[in-house]
Amino acid sequence: MANHKSALKRAGQNQVRRLRNRTVRTRVKNVVKEVRVAAAQNSADETGVAFKTAQSAIAKAAKKGVLHRRTASRKIARLAKLTYSVQ
Length: 87
Description:
Strand content: under 5%
Radius of gyration: 17 Å
CATH class: Mainly Alpha
CATH topology: Methane Monooxygenase Hydroxylase, Chain G, domain 1
Order of helices and strands: HHH
Helix content: over 70%
Distance between the termini: 54 Å
Shape: elongated
Number of helices: 3
Number of domains: 1
Largest sheet: none
């Protein structure tokens, strides 16, 4: 455990960031799952709407630094490929 005042503060900041990042990562996982479920049901309209939502959530996660920009780009590209195969 941290002993110095600054180390204690840093540990607290890391905890807050960890919790915030976890919520963002969970959101990304859920929206990706929604796209995949909609694509499995061959529903072009639902898939398109879910894809737009997922694209936005992934881009925001990358902007916040939760995901690396290339990881975000790869996820979006794979979902786009899946989405356009349904339509």
